[in-house]
Amino acid sequence: MIQSGQLHLDLALLEDKLAYKFANPLLLEQALTHRSHSGIHNERLEFLGDSILNCVVALMLYEKFSKIDEGDLSRLRANLVKQQSLYEIAQRIELSQFLRLGGGEQKSGGFRRPSILADGMEALFGAIFIDGGFDQTKRVINALYLPVLQTVDPKTLGKDAKTLLQEYLQSRHISLPLYTVVATHGAAHSQEFEVECAIPKYSIQVIGKGGSRRAAEQGAAKLALEAVMAAAPQAAKRTRRKKETDPAVAAIAAETTAESPKRVNKKAVEENETSSTQPVADPTLL
Fold first, then answer.
1. Of 29, 46, 50, 105, which one is the catalytic site residue?
2. C-alpha dihedral sign at 106, 108, 109, 110
3. Helices marked H in the chain — which ranges?
4. CB burial string 69-92: b at 16+ within 10 A, e below
5. Quick one: how far is CA 26 from the chain centroid?
6. Confidence (pLDDT) at 150
7. Active-site residue, selected from the candidate residues 105, 119, 122, 194
8. I need a labelling partner for 48 at 20 to 30 A (CA). Which of 120, 147, 234, 262 fits?
9. What are phi and psi for residue 33, nearest 5 degrees?
């Protein structure tokens, strides 16, 4: 992607985005070089960067979430360092325009491929570690991950849609969803599945699609979770409104209200009558 005459200018722009200036620019060039481009590529730096990234993200989570146990911390870390998370960070700093790819990869759109962009991010971390040490690498990673950590929900991050939907329904004592394969398309080696997810209580029926049954179920669960979360508040409002406007409920309430004073007054009258009919002691006999 980088033309030879613009190489150093472009790398300076990337350094600005990273807020780090390389003492050895060759390390940066290597970190951006895919194996399709030349024999000196970024795979070893990627290996190193992967380890550094895991360490730094683990430290960030340990410091930010002091009450979360080891299992949940591991789940959070795995989600933050996975390919999709790195790909999103790469897109934010526009890493694709700095990559050095071979002709075949360029023509096939390799600069947009999530795996290549994620590997490039890890290679950058490895290059910064060699060039400037752990503290500088930690600072760069912290800055890139800060926007991500600000929106992290430790209760849900890393849980798939089926798990989240199940937990949501169970917490409200609602029957679990029903998954049904409704269609399959394509040849055996490239099938697409359509799976329906149904939640009878809310009359929800949604269809998810995917290259496998599991993927289709996850897609359907995601749509169902969004639908049930939108339906639940409306159902609660309808229940309250029904109670308030139900003629039978209103009649009973009115009758109870009307009879209450009568019962109180009747009791008072009875007490007065009783007291007035009780015999009075004759003072001459005392």
1. 50
2. negative
3. 7-18, 25-31, 43-64, 70-80, 83-92, 103-107, 114-132, 134-149, 161-171, 213-245, 247-277
4. eeebbeebbebbbeeebbbebbee
5. 38
6. 85
7. 122
8. 147
9. -100, 115
Residues of the chain with pLDDT under 70: 1-9, 233-286
Hey, is 80 helix, strand or coil? helix
Quote the DSSP letter at residue 65.
-
167 is catalytic: no
CA distance 230 to 237: 12
pTM of the complete model beyond 0.70: no
122 has catalytic annotation: yes
Contact between residue 206 and residue 224 where contact means Cβ atoms under 8 Å apart: yes
Residues 13 and 25: their CA atoms lie apart, in Å, by 13
3-state secondary structure 106-165: HHCCHHHCHHHHHHHHHHHHHHHHHHHCHHHHHHHHHHHHHHHHCCCCCCCCCCCHHHHH
In this prediction, residue 277 carries a pLDDT of 47
CA atoms of 53 and 248, how far apart (whole Å): 65
Listed by start position, the domains of the chain span 4-149, 161-245
Separation between Cα atoms, residue 140 and residue 136, nearest integer Å: 6
Mean pLDDT of the chain: 83
C-alpha closest to that of 82 among 54, 109, 60, 55 = 54
User: Which pLDDT score is estimated for 233?
Assistant: 66
CATH architecture of 161-245: 2-Layer Sandwich (3.30)
Characterize the bridge pairing of strands 204-210 and 192-199.
antiparallel
